[in-house]
Amino acid sequence: MTTDDTDAVIVEEPVDLGARIAELLETGDETKALELARSIHPADLAASISTLEQTAVRDLIRREFSSNELGKLLDFLDPHYRDLMLDGVAPDRLAEIVSVVEDDIATDAVQDLTGPEAAKVVSILPDELRESIHRLVDYPPDTAAGRMTGRLKLVSDGATVGETIALLRAEPEDQRVSIIYAITPDAQLAGLVTFRALLTARPNQLISEIAEEVVSVEAGMDQEEAARVLKQYNLTALPVLDPEGRVIGTLTADDLLQVLESEATEDMFLLAGVDEEENLESVRQSVRYRLPWLYANLLTVLLAAWVVSMFDDTLARVAILAAFLPVVAAQGGNAGLQTVTVVVRSIALGRIAARNIMPIVRHELATGVITGLASALAVGIIAWVWLDNAVLGGLVAVAVTGDVLIGVAAGVLIPMLLHTMKQDPALSASIWLTTVTDVFGFFIYLGLATLLIEWL
Amino acid sequence: MTTDDTDAVIVEEPVDLGARIAELLETGDETKALELARSIHPADLAASISTLEQTAVRDLIRREFSSNELGKLLDFLDPHYRDLMLDGVAPDRLAEIVSVVEDDIATDAVQDLTGPEAAKVVSILPDELRESIHRLVDYPPDTAAGRMTGRLKLVSDGATVGETIALLRAEPEDQRVSIIYAITPDAQLAGLVTFRALLTARPNQLISEIAEEVVSVEAGMDQEEAARVLKQYNLTALPVLDPEGRVIGTLTADDLLQVLESEATEDMFLLAGVDEEENLESVRQSVRYRLPWLYANLLTVLLAAWVVSMFDDTLARVAILAAFLPVVAAQGGNAGLQTVTVVVRSIALGRIAARNIMPIVRHELATGVITGLASALAVGIIAWVWLDNAVLGGLVAVAVTGDVLIGVAAGVLIPMLLHTMKQDPALSASIWLTTVTDVFGFFIYLGLATLLIEWL
Fold first, then answer.
1. Are B290 and A335 an interchain contact pair (Cβ–Cβ within 8 Å)?
2. Which residues are CB-neighbours of B31 under 8 A, at least 6 positions away?
3. What confidence score (pLDDT) does residue B189 get?
4. Is residue B335 a contact partner of residue B411, using CB atoms and an 8 Å limit?
5. Which of B251, B283, B302 is the last residue of a domain?
6. Are A99 and A65 part of one and the same domain?
7. Which domain, by its residues, includes A193?
8. Is a pLDDT exceeding 90 seen at residue B394?
9. Is the ipTM of this complex over 0.90?
10. Looking at the structure, do residues A412 and A300 belong to the same domain, yes or no?
11. Which CATH number goes with the domain that contains A418?
12. Residue B55 in contact with partner chain A when CB distance is under 8 A
């Protein structure tokens, strides 16, 4: 490769190439559209077609790209769009595509197939890839082993540096790997061998002398936990061992990225009662994921309705009381939502442990007292001035303070309780929270109003 | 290093070492606590002390660890806890610590200092590090250049492979770098030189022959955008160029991780009206970050209160109407929150673009019609049976359907509008949303009730 080729790609402003391809396609110029799609870096193409609206461009590429071109593109696509591109592709073509992608992507693709189709695709694959896939398929997809790649090289720790380099030089171009582990004569992991160390060592040194200490995980470890290990130790690769201590694969930094991104998505979605899989593409899917939580919300908010109904005599006598129902509920609910969000994310980032929640409860109650009183003062004065009724102002102020305090306390306890019950701490926390703040807020507010009705 | 040392670290169950150190400390056994802290891998120690409650252990380590030990620990700590550990350390010691960490961490630490203290620390540093920091400090911290590390090696593309290897072998142990770029005679980036390529090339080959094509970014690019480039191209390092096209540093995968994690945190926090910096450690800070949003929420919910107050005659005649106010508001609000969350996250992941929102609006309206009618049917029947009033049941059902539709439409439009206004799409979207759903929901519900009051 010459200099002129290599310094060409300086990424500046992102140009929306996907939109330009789509435009060409809309004007009926498929040839030009394809030409453009082929001329850009597969990573850019992958980014350009990863939006909801690029269905037509994706269809064109899926139909017209060679298996080799498609394989290169798949290496850069998000798993979601990767699945979309492979959905319904004929077994022959799928086998061709799968043969040119990384083995962990190939395994995912094969795992998504069912029954006779999977068998057919696997039967067409090259022997080496078939073995690699078989090894990966044995493990559940959410474990370290289910996520790993088999693309690595094992060398004996008794070999010399010179022998190892000769081995690497002899490798065909397309079978080159970037990770080398040293193993002992009884096949146990002995360390990581970096290319850097091979390069600077003397040819007659033993691999055991240059192998670096390495952190490893067991095959069955949960993938999220394994990703956290990768992050904790600032690693770019993490060997995965079978129960006998043999290296069977390696996790890489892009696995970590995917796990962290989907974890964040999951937390956000669960907080609002949405499924992580939801992608705005199928109305049927959206309804199926969201309706159960809306029904759950309905059931819980009926509790609040029942509390209000208990006070209908009071409301009939002083109808304006109803105007401040949403105010009390919203202040308590929002203060609680702030707490829930901070607590959920702190649990996810490992900053707080379920063991010792008292410091957080104290922090939130102290924060709640101050923000509650500050809100109450403002809303109390507004209510007083607006309706010219000091008692009503005081009543609203007390109810807001109380509900903010209940909100922040529930905001700590709900995610912590879910966490202790081995549930995701975000699991529809917002629905449980608003139930608590609505029910208690209305009870305090209307209860006090009933007691003080003579002065209202 | 021998085999026996290297295969020792298999990560299995996470043991809470931080808690054990804290226990030892509580029983007054500082010596044992320190001994344990020193005996574990710095990555494990970093993870163990990164919780709210480990303040005492952090203080002990900060006081008793040597500058070298502390430097090793800092490499594995989250930026948040890194800042805590360095806060208030004397200049002499800080200079010692900063000399043993990566240069980007050193730069961050120096940037956090102000005035004479910064000058003092910098003046004690070794020349090479001082230069490196000066280079990094020139750029705003939120740009590619502000995040990069200067730890890389540049080799002329006219040099031979043999010369380059000799150069690498001559490097002292502690100045080894893991990234090498080839540059042209006029100092332009010519490509990436991997150790792998050096190892398998012939000694008399030119660097220009083995340099690989490389993607680069300009120094001033926003750090989040640069991180996205790193991700898009599946890279582990990304060279940063000055306006003249010279390599001045490189971004690494851990920068990417940090950017993605803090982006996710920011979105979650903004949705709920919490500041990204919030960390449950200072009540004063929590109040300062949260109270403004609670006040904003108060102002907006007073609009809803005003809508309810307009119908106080109706409420005085049929007080039970008030019981369904929270039901209408909650169904509309929650349906909208589901939409907001999916839309915000889809924008962050690049799945939807601001240019073309109609398909998403259509998707959400279709979903809203179905979930709205399904919710309305349930709540209508419940209201009818509970209060034995079919008209009230129908009224509630119509209001819920209407409010769910308004919620999902607002759920698309609010984040899209914020995005178009160059704001974060999550910026307190939940507060704007509940205002819309409360105001319209109450208006539909109580407005219809006023029209139908004869039959209630």
1. yes
2. none
3. 95
4. yes
5. B251
6. yes
7. 153-262
8. yes
9. no
10. yes
11. 1.10.357.20
12. no
